[in-house]
Write a structure and sequence with these properties.
heterodimer; A: 191 residues; mainly alpha; two-stranded antiparallel sheet; 9 helices; B: alpha/beta; five-stranded parallel sheet
């Protein structure tokens, strides 16, 4: 079995560039470079972001699961980030606040900047300033950064069920989410 | 209308693949990360542990990336510990993040818990991890209160002197004694100072 492009060499660099370019292209084509469209998610008038992201999750999940099952990729080689409960909750809240205020997230801010939007440039600059700042302050942040370590956690592990069952549950949740999102959009556009 | 049809087809395909996944169970994975035979080799060639004297040398020489973890209870840790050590429970050691380039040294009161923690970390794929086989007792006996026989042969004297200097660096009190009452013996039954001398000379670990 193989895990393509995991060698860290030129092939993985080239693959990353291609995938990144395609990702940016499709984000832009889906209208994700517009802060107004993204902010619509928080006002429940436009849930495109939710639908696009959940579609990506379901597609990737089914792809990885079945490619792993037929033996094309070795899922043991897939990096699963470790869980640090408190710092990740705090990070998620900070990220959410930033997302709601800027109307852009990291990927979409790059798309917005690439299409010449000034708010996109501002968010990208803020993002790099934040990365640089936390890098400089890392020594003093380290204690917080390492709080409440839980190791590598996955849903099958937490619930004690097979990966296939989790895959099916996520697909069902996505489908239900799409239905609800469509209803909310229709109701709010009619209002 | 075509869009609606395409969405329906894709949604049905996703549901079908999801439902089949329940039957499929789990994707294939390569064998376990834990190479038991490799661990056994490390134990038998004694590359799983460091001696207290070696650890003392690493601390004095400020070995890059050295992290010393004390897994005794907090009262014992508060009372005294190896300089620079941090206290962690066995549960914490099992999930604690380890960075590339770090060398972990574990010790407990005796040696059992530290050896178990070594297995936990090695099974997580952490490579540079060692434990003090004689635990904190070994640190106290070999570094803080080393005792050497007064009538030691000259070829062993130089190594003893270097251990004595190391001991003084940590505020220890090396002593020459007429008859050595052996408190610790290593696994071969050798007097522990002798093992320390042997290691200091040959770095056989």
């Amino acid at each position: 079995m193989i895990t393509p492009f995991s060698d860290g060499g030129y092939a993985s660099g080239a693959a990353a560039l291609l995938i990144g370019a395609a990702f940016g292209w499709f984000l832009e084509r889906a209208g994700m470079g517009s802060a107004r469209k993204l902010a619509g998610q928080f006002y429940l008038t436009d849930l495109t972001v939710f639908k696009v992201m959940f579609t990506a999750i379901v597609t990737a999940m089914l792809g990885v699961f079945w490619l792993g099952w037929i033996g094309v990729i070795d899922t043991a080689n897939i990096y699963v980030p470790e869980t640090f409960l408190i710092p990740q909750i705090v990070g998620g809240v900070v990220f959410g606040i930033g997302f709601a205020i800027a109307g852009l997230c990291p990927g979409t801010s790059c798309v917005a900047a690439a299409t010449g939007r000034i708010d996109g440039f501002a968010v990208v600059a803020g993002m790099f300033a934040g990365v640089l700042g936390s890098g400089i302050l890392f020594a003093s942040l380290r204690q917080f950064y390492d709080l409440t370590p839980r190791g590598v956690l996955t849903l099958p592990q937490i619930f004690g069920v097979s990966e296939g069952l989790v895959v099916f549950a996520v697909v069902l949740i996505a489908m239900a989410g799409f239905k609800v999102a469509n209803r909310i959009e229709q109701r709010n556009s009619a209002a | 209308m075509n869009d609606d049809r395409a969405i329906r087809v894709l949604a049905t395909a996703a549901l079908a693949l999801g439902a089949l996944a329940v039957v499929a169970g789990s994707p294939r994975k390569s064998g376990p990360a834990l190479d038991v035979a490799q661990l056994a080799r490390e134990v038998s060639n004694e590359s799983d542990h460091v001696t207290a004297v070696e650890l003392a040398g690493w601390i004095r020489d400020r070995k890059a990336g050295l992290r010393i973890i004390d897994i005794r209870d907090s009262a014992s840790f508060e009372e005294s510990h190896v300089p620079g050590a941090v206290r962690q429970s066995l549960d914490e050691v099992a999930v604690a993040p380890v960075k590339d380039g770090e060398t972990i040294v574990l010790y407990s009161g005796g040696g059992a818990h530290a050896a178990q923690a070594w297995v936990l970390l090695r099974s997580r794929g952490v490579k540079d991890v060692f434990f003090l086989r004689g635990g904190y007792d070994e640190w106290m006996d070999e570094v803080m209160n080393p005792r050497f026989p007064r009538n030691a042969p000259p070829e062993e004297r130089a190594a003893m002197d270097s251990i004595a200097a190391l001991s003084r660096y940590f505020g220890g009190v090396p002593r020459n004694v007429d008859s050595l009452i052996v408190r610790n013996r290593d696994h071969d039954g050798q007097a522990s100072w002798k093992a320390a001398v042997k290691r200091a000379r040959g770095r056989g670990c």
